[in-house]
Design goal:
This protein folds into 2 domains: about 180 residues, no CATH class; about 220 residues, Rossmann fold. The chain has a 7-stranded mixed sheet with strand order 1-2-3-4-5-6-7, with helices on both faces. About 50% of the residues lie in helices and about 10% in strands. The radius of gyration is 32 Å and the shape is elongated. By secondary structure, it is of the alpha/beta class.
């Protein structure tokens, strides 16, 4: 692996380095695809994202504009017709986002009538029309892949190729059918570390192949890095349809998943720290810091000095007795000042001899924002390490990774 590749991998894994079992063997990865992956259908799927007038021929597949719509691109080859189904894009963001939700909730989404929901019937009608002449194949990326897969379950004669198809909750009927019949007509490809297809791949009964992510060009790397502070690039880079074409130089499969595990652990740790951190810190304080403070008070005779300072403060506060006795506002101030002094007397060492906010918050943790923030920060740091360790524990490193 060249130095440039190693440096890019380090960028993607900057949240955490390598955790878990230590393996100092050099990482060796061939720069070409080592499986039987064929990117032809990925190119066809990608063509559907273009405006209807800008689509073109792909290999032996000739684009048929008259049969196509904004949502599907139809091609003709000597052996079959091919329909590529468009996924979510900025041009159709609102209707597609609604359909993404329907796919995400699985069988619940299937309760929505087709004309209001996923819109599979018009595509099926197109398939039935073309099948009268010769066989038909389908392809789709993301949402388009989900639709292509559903149509492939219905019609076993269709050859279907999907790329990072959306999967969250299962479509129970489709899952059971594929468990029984195998759904050998459907081939699903996903990029290691893609979150859109990741959850569904756990329970899927279809054939799914996870392949290594493609390295970006220096220009794309610079472009994506500019948005890193808004959306982590390891979230959206693996999902792009471009990951499935021009696959001549690859990252190891672990590049994006390890970062994702670490990020999930990081945010889970922050939540745990914010919720439980103050109580944990209070418990630690009671057993460690308070005995130390008490020892310092006893050995340094600090109590007498503190009492003297408190008395002086009280005399200063109560100097204007006439104002305090006649003014309603003054009486309120007087009451507040006395309450403050009462609290001060309880923890005179902390207030008089330890000026740091952090140590003060050890006692008054429940109402102090920065103590909660500290707990969240610690939790996030621990969580990202735990997330990385979990990934490494579940995935043994070998030279092909």
């Amino acid at each position: 692996m060249d130095d440039e590749t190693i440096q890019l991998i380090k960028k993607y894994n900057k949240v955490q380095s390598k955790y878990g079992p230590i393996d100092d063997r050099p990482i060796i990865k061939p720069e070409t695809e080592d499986s039987e992956y064929n990117e032809l259908y990925a190119r066809l799927a990608g063509e559907s994202y273009k405006p209807i007038d800008e689509r073109g021929d792909i290999g032996d597949y000739k684009y048929i504009k008259d049969e196509s719509t904004d949502n599907i691109a139809v091609f003709n080859s000597p052996k079959d017709y091919h329909i590529s189904i468009k996924g979510t894009s900025k041009e159709n963001i609102l209707p597609s986002t609604f359909q993404d939700v329907l796919v995400g909730v699985g069988s619940i989404g299937s309760l929505i009538p087709d004309n209001l929901g996923l819109g599979l019937i018009p595509i099926k009608n197109k398939i039935d029309k073309l099948k009268k002449q010769k066989s038909v194949s389908l392809s789709g990326h993301s949402l388009g892949g989900s639709k292509a897969s559903m149509l492939g379950v219905i019609d076993k004669d269709l050859k279907v190729y999907t790329y990072n198809k959306g999967d969250v909750l299962p479509f129970i009927g489709d899952t059971l059918k594929c468990a029984i019949t195998g759904c050998e007509n459907i081939k699903n490809y996903r990029i290691a570390g893609d979150i859109v297809s990741g959850f569904g791949s756990i329970y899927s009964t279809q054939n799914i192949e996870t392949i290594a992510p493609k390295q970006l060009t220096p220009e794309k790397e610079t472009l994506f890095s500019s948005t890193e502070n808004i959306v982590p690039k390891n979230i959206y880079i693996p999902h792009s349809i471009e990951q499935f074409t021009d696959r001549t130089k690859l990252y190891p499969k672990s590049t994006f998943p390890r970062k994702l595990y670490s990020q999930v652990g990081h945010y889970a740790g922050i939540g745990f720290g914010i919720y439980y951190g103050p109580q944990i810190l209070s418990s630690i304080t009671s057993t460690t810091i308070k005995p130390i403070i008490n020892t310092l008070i006893e050995q340094g005779d600090i109590t007498k000095n503190a009492e003297k300072k408190l008395n002086l403060s009280l005399e200063k506060i109560m100097e204007d007795e006439e104002f305090l006795s006649k003014s309603t506002i003054g009486k309120s101030i007087d009451r507040a000042q006395k309450e403050y002094i009462d609290e001060l007397k309880k923890d005179k060492f902390i207030y008089d001899f330890i000026p740091t906010t952090t140590l003060k918050n050890v006692k008054y943790y429940s109402g102090k924002l920065n103590n909660i923030a500290t707990s969240g920060t610690i939790g996030g740091y621990v969580g990202q390490n735990v997330g990385g360790y979990i990934y490494d524990s579940l995935n043994y490193y070998n030279d092909d990774d």
